[in-house]
Amino acid sequence: MKKTVLTLLILGQVTFAQHNSQNKNTTSEKDSTKVENLEEVFVTANRTATLRKETPVAISKLTAKTINETKAVALYEIANKVPGVLMVNLGNEQHMMSIRQPMTTNAYYLYLEDGLSIRPMGIFNHNALLEINQFNLQNIEVVKGPASSLYGPEAVGGTINLISIKPSIDPEFKFGIQADQWGYRRIQAAGGATVGKVGFHVSGISSLQKNGWMTFSDYRKDNINARIDYNINTNTRLISNTMYGQYYSDMSGGVNETDFYNRDYKSTSDFTYRKSDALRTRLTLEHDWNDNAGSYITAYYRDNKLGQNPSYGIKWSPTINPTKAAGEVNSNNFKSYGAIAQHTQKFDFLNTKIVGGVLYDYSPVTYWAYLLEMKANLNPGLPGKQTVNYYEITAERPDVKLANYSADIFNKAAYAQMSINPINKLVITAGARYDNLKVNYNNALDNSTGTKIYDKPTFKVGINYNPAKFTGIYANYAQGFAPPGITSIFRAKPGTGGTTGKPAEFYYNLEPATFNNYEMGGWLAVLNGKLIFDYAVYYMEGKNELLNVKLPDNSTDYRSVGETRHKGIEFGGNYKMLSNQLNIRFGGTVAEHTFIDFKVSDKPTDVLQNLDGKEMPNAPKWSGNSEVSYYPNWLPKFRTSLEWQSVGSYYQDQVNTVKYTGYDIFNFRAGYEWKGIEIYGNIINITDKLYAYNVSRGNLTTSQPAYLAAAPRTFLVGLQYNFSFKK
């Protein structure tokens, strides 16, 4: 602990240069419902503070007010309020994502913390957001669609920027507790102030789940964030920010169909787990040369250890050998040493603005996985139709490696973006980035060493036209780029290595996925700003998307040769009534995700050869989130809201034979604050609906579905004390 504190004080975390922009534009959040909605400032879409009306992308902001009123246990409760976003709860803050993609764990999303990626390129983890401290969020910005021209690989389906709370001018402190009837507890505290030239903010949470509604579903999470701002002078700032977090969770996994519909929430294992130990620290020096020029340089360090005995890694076949199964234990550890520098320059000529920067990242990584031999204890059933009651480990086999490699990852990048205002009300934006991702590897399973290089330039161009103060439209073309995760490359192919007697074979030939996105959209604020509406229409072509093909024993084969198509409409709006006492928020997306040309087998004997023309699995054509909130004038500081979350039907398998019907649920929230004391309560899933966050299965007729069951009706209560000493 002493070492952690020392690291916190010395190194800190650097916030992107956007922080200075945020500090100067705090009023935009307060005025987000006025006619001047297009004056709202965003920092993610252009890496610097930019008005919405000058941003040719689909972007949304979740404000501090929304975050504070949601009182979320997990981040998905907040993120799903953004139109076009479906963050899928996998339990205990684990998750996967759907933004212009099916529900997936693929590396098509970029998760940023104050503008800097949580993970280095090539080491994507779909659960990365479980490391976030929800009590440390000022706002969240979501860019939908490719942003690779600014942020590089993995910024394809969407980019989520979690912006942390900055130091307050006056001393502030808040402390809270919350709990539900299923054994969940959380303690949280935060505080900060500015003394002379130095401002600081510290925030921490400690979450604990014991004996929940699902068996074997305990978890614990402890996070602390600390930010220190030093204003050297009026033009120069030094900003540090450090995060340290520990996480441990049982992995209960999915339940079979019979147990799901009987509400028998019973895990088939009592040994699976996920654990994380993460440190991120940054230091930024910002300087304003004049009113038209500013620069920053950031140095950062990451240290992450992720260990698992994953429930999804259990392989079992009811037709091959129904009483035997296999699992694994794995560990993925990396460190990162990097720097990023950026300069912003404005010119009077055509109101030109140029943003340019360079990045260097060095991330050594080690990964290993070994075999677990298991016995499958079956429920009664017909041969080939059995389900597993529970698994038990019969032997740990650290001598049988499923993967064992080390690698040094080097990412070098340069980017630039320019916007001009050639005529009144018209803004043109163009940008480009070049990434060179080099992987020097040592694969112990086949005693090979080598280098993999993934390099690519990506481009974007967009226009904004704002014919009136209350409306604006935009159009853009953007490219996306995502190299295969190195964990996929160096995992032995099914049927090779281990105890098979065959030499291990690997996925050295996986190709980077590339995307071309065409989009148009706009905004409208009418009725004196009381009704605000925005929309986006997109068409995205993908090539060489990484496809996980489920085999009969639940093992995974990877493919990255083919074409896909993603198209949809996203819309959202806000309507204030009764002198702003009643607020109606609505939003959703209608989308279609299709395999255009995708070969999944090279063997003439295989029944399934390709997926051409089929819908991608886990891809609902509809999802939406809407909410009605009431803030009565007769009882100031009281709030109440009713939220509707809707997810349409989708195919469970890649061959489009079985669908899940989707779900509609309702959540209720209420809170009241008196003299700094806030009491609140949430009812999640008011009607106690039986539903699953996700349902998936293999492609055979004998494949068994796995239902990721959602929680029954949940009552959350909380108490929080908010103190502010204003001069």
Automatic annotation (TrEMBL):
**Pfam families in the cross-refs:** Plug, TonB_dep_Rec_b-barrel
PROSITE patterns in the record, alphabetically? Answer: TONB_DEPENDENT_REC_3
Q: Which residues form the TonB-dependent receptor plug domain?
A: 53-159
Homology family:
Belongs to the TonB-dependent receptor family.
What GO CC terms are in its UniProt record?
cell outer membrane
**Where would you find this protein in the cell?**
Cell outer membrane
The topology of this chain with respect to the membrane is: Multi-pass membrane protein
> Which part of the chain is the TonB-dependent receptor-like beta-barrel domain?
231-686
- Name recorded for this polypeptide: Outer membrane receptor proteins, mostly Fe transport
Provide the alphabetized UniProt keywords: Cell outer membrane, Ion transport, Iron, Iron transport, Membrane, Receptor, TonB box, Transmembrane, Transmembrane beta strand, Transport
GO biological process terms, alphabetically, are: iron ion transport
TM helices/strands, residue ranges: none
Q: Which organism is it from?
A: Flavobacterium fluvii
